[in-house]
Design brief:
Blueprint (H helix, E strand, L loop, with lengths): L3 H15 L3 E4 L5 E4 L10 H9 L3 E3 L1 H5 L7 E8 L2 E9 L2 H43 L8 H10 L8 E8 L2 H9 L7 H19 L6 E6 L2 E7 L6 H23 L3 E9 L2 H21 L5 E3 L4
Parallel strand pairs: 9-10
Antiparallel strand pairs: 1-2, 1-5, 3-4, 4-5, 6-8, 6-9, 7-8
Length: 304
């Protein structure tokens, strides 16, 4: 459950901070991260007892000599979601290093929890990208609509709800990327661009903040959104309310990220087949709007 790269990063950082070697094991006692790289991959016998008892253990020189792969120090359990997933060992005189035990344990659990949440968020984002792509390519002769509906339900979205597809395109994104790359040599243009893209997606989700608003990146500087409509009786009103949100979104992105966007709004959809049409209509409206109404940023398929 503990990622080896994350374990090594934590071991390196905590070793540097406290001045004593820190190692991290998995739930079988195998060292997966250590300030002393030679110990990675070895068996740390003291961790087995620590995991079994779920309490801090310590071992002086005499005790360490009786255990495989163990040096004098303390070993504390690492607990995530009420499960002991490994240990943290601190090498040194037990009387001196045990005062660091609970602090290092707490810091390790926080960093592991953040890493786990980040990985889950990335997996969720990839799943949403895949789902939207499959909706865009939906073919009823190949995939039953119930299959896509079930995938949406697993991710927390009811695809049988009336929706309007919205697409967002960052204006002149290629020029922006080139300008980032032409900056001073010690800059990190890839990281800055990634930060911009993530920030724009966050802004989209803040404006379209309904529980059923599905938003994700769909390409370089491009985003797709399936906006849930709770009162679909009046098509014109639903599209009007969607346009109000899109106008607000364009203004928010300009203010926060200093970049213009073009936004396309599709038609009201009441099924997965119609949702596919709405999504493609939104892209069509965006492309036509950019050519025919350059003084605007938001375009509705119904206009064309």
């Amino acid at each position: 459950m503990i990622n080896h790269e994350v374990a090594q990063e934590i071991a390196d950082k905590t070793t540097e901070i406290i001045g004593y070697n820190v190692l991290i094991t998995d739930d079988t006692g195998i060292v997966i991260g250590s300030g002393d790289k030679d110990r990675v991959g070895t068996f740390h016998e003291a961790s087995v007892e620590t995991i079994r008892r779920a309490v801090m253990t310590w071992h002086d020189v005499a005790a360490a000599e009786q255990l495989e792969g163990v040096k004098p120090g303390v070993t504390v359990p690492v607990v995530l979601e009420n499960r002991t997933v490994g240990t943290v060992g601190i090498t040194g005189n037990p009387d001196e290093v045990k005062r660091f035990g609970m602090v290092v344990k707490s810091q390790t659990e926080i960093m592991l929890r953040e890493s786990l949440h980040l990985r889950m968020a990335l997996l969720q984002e990839k799943a949403l990208e895949s789902l939207l792509q499959d909706i865009a390519n939906y073919d009823p002769t190949i995939v039953e609509p119930a299959v896509l509906a079930a995938r949406g339900e697993e991710l927390g979205y009811d695809l049988n709800l009336s929706r309007v597809a919205v697409v967002v395109d960052l204006a002149r994104f290629a020029d922006l990327a080139n300008s980032y790359k032409s900056q001073i040599a010690d800059s990190r243009p890839e990281l800055e661009l990634q930060s911009l893209k993530v920030g724009v997606l966050r802004t989209i989700k803040e404006v379209f903040n309904g529980d059923q608003d599905l938003a994700t990146s769909v390409g370089t500087g491009k985003y797709g959104l399936l906006h849930g409509i709770w009162s679909p009786e009046d098509n014109a009103d639903a599209l009007h309310q969607t346009q109000i949100l899109c106008d607000s979104l364009a203004e928010s992105i300009k203010t926060r990220h200093e970049i213009d966007v073009n936004i396309g709004i599709g038609t009201l959809a009441r099924s997965i087949a119609e949702l596919k049409m709405s999504y493609h209509d939104a892209w069509g409206a965006l492309q036509l709007g950019k050519r025919l109404a350059r003084n605007r940023q938001v375009f509705r398929a119904s206009e064309f």
